[in-house]
Automatic annotation (TrEMBL), chains A, B:
CDD domains: SpoU-like_rRNA-MTase. Belongs to the class IV-like SAM-binding methyltransferase superfamily. RNA methyltransferase TrmH family. The keyword Transferase applies. This is 23S rRNA (Guanosine(2251)-2'-O)-methyltransferase RlmB. It comes from the Bacteria. InterPro entries: Alpha/beta_knot_MTases, MRM3-like_sub_bind, Ribosomal_eL30-like_sf, rRNA_Methyltransferase, rRNA_MeTrfase_TrmH, SpoU_MeTrfase, SpoU_subst-bd, tRNA_m1G_MTases_N. PANTHER family: RRNA METHYLTRANSFERASE 3, RRNA METHYLTRANSFERASE 3, MITOCHONDRIAL. Residues 30-103 form the RNA 2-O ribose methyltransferase substrate binding domain. The gene is rlmB. It comes from Dorea ammoniilytica. The keyword Transferase applies. It holds the Pfam family SpoU_methylase.
Length: 267, 267
């Protein structure tokens, strides 16, 4: 049992929670809570940390996960778990998991030999972890085939993002790209129609036909899409807004367009 | 200038930030930041608190608001503003504003002589401040006519809710009701069709016709709608979800149904 917050393992966990660089160097990230613990694929589970209380309560689950994955396990005191955790009231379980997304392979395939009709979200400079996580979760529900992010988007392995994904982080293909312009050009060459969600949209979001290969561009929370990205889209679409609302939250705007595409594709 | 965090005025502001009871006793709430400051109607503005830096930067705006409203104004040191603020990096302006929503009057009118075709959101035990604020903001954009909340929903005057509304708090009618059952019965008597968003929905959310008077019920983040509320709905609707997603975030689910109603009503 680890009882001291100055333990080297504890310091490493805090680093992994706080620092993107630490996560990327080790190619791992942290998950917290029962729900995420249940969702972690065993072959990606490297380490389990539990409190005594959690272990007693969920012994069968913990032992099964521990055995199947063959990973390391340690017990932390409540104080140490509180110190390590990203939440105010930790649930008592934390995992170290490998970063291992099929995003790059997905993108290459999506462009050349897509298995389904592509429905792509391209996120440009999205900064809020809650929005990013919510978009991942909602994207899975809306049958989005994958997510492309500009390299200056928030880190998807940020603990707040992970928490908001409710497990979708393990299932939705995503990829960071250095050169958004280049990817957009490739998408267009491969017959994917590109839509910029934009306050200056010419068409309402429900006017185009999304049953063909489609990609939506969604921009930063405060500033919207950067001009040089928006300009590359085939069509600007807008979400009509009543009242005096000037803009929608980025995750809300993404939801509206993703579910409209999903709706059309079900009919 | 207030320079001490032990000043009685400062203590009161902290109480107003932290305690629903303090807000309800005084019938006021706090707003923070430039955007909300611009949005506060002058006739509801009671007190302005600014840092010297903010005052210098936005002198014309502050003076105009101060003069038009005839309210009190005080300068706080940065330390005091930090102490009072709900955010880590305060923008330097905080207001005390009257609680004054036309929700009760709206509901009475909506049931008997609605001005438009009602589009009502009924929120049952919604707990997350961010979700509540986002629903208010999105509801205004989707032309929702008003929001009904069970009395155990999160306080709309919670600073996190206020922040997420981006000003919609001043424009969307809302009302807390003790007896949700009774209000639902009244809505039905007045010809408003009621829809429960529910995992056990028989119809997809885009199948009903929402161009007639409609009300959507949305439940708690973790548990969904309470049975006794869901059971009163005319129709259970579901949002089809792909992948392994078990549920959507409450604000996301609300967005999907609100914007579908809005979409139908535009056509």
């Amino acid at each position: 049992m680890i009882t001291s917050t100055s333990n080297a393992k504890v310091k490493r966990l805090v680093n992994l929670r706080k620092k993107r660089k630490a996560r990327d160097t080790e190619k791992v990230f942290l998950t917290e809570g029962l729900r995420m613990f249940e969702e972690v694929p065993e072959d990606r589970l490297l380490e389990i940390y539990v409190t005594e209380h959690f272990y007693k309560k969920e012994k069968a689950l913990v032992d099964a996960k521990h055995k199947k994955s063959g990973c390391q396990m340690e017990v932390l005191t409540d104080t140490v778990m509180n110190f390590v955790s990203d939440t105010k009231t930790p649930q008592g379980v934390l995992c170290v998991v490998t970063q291992e997304n099929q995003g790059e392979a997905w993108l290459e395939k999506e462009l050349k030999a897509p298995e389904q009709v592509p429905l792509i979200m391209l996120l440009d400079n999205l900064q809020d972890p809650g929005n990013m996580g919510t978009i991942l979760r909602t994207a899975e529900a809306a049958a989005v085939t994958g997510i492309i992010m500009s390299s200056d988007c928030v880190d998807v392995y940020n603990p707040k993002v992970i928490r908001s994904t409710m497990g979708s982080i393990f299932r939705v293909p995503f990829v960071y790209v250095e050169n958004v312009t280049d990817v957009i050009r490739q998408m267009k060459e491969h017959g994917i129609r590109t839509y910029a969600t934009h306050l200056a949209g010419e068409l309402a979001y429900d006017e185009p036909d999304y049953r063909t290969p489609s990609a939506f561009f969604v921009g930063n929370e405060g500033n919207g899409l950067r001009d040089q990205v928006a300009e590359l889209a085939d069509i600007y679409i807008k979400i009509p807004m009543a009242g005096q609302v000037e803009s929608l939250n980025a995750a809300i705007a993404a939801t509206v367009v993703m579910f409209e595409a999903g709706r059309q594709r079900r009919h």
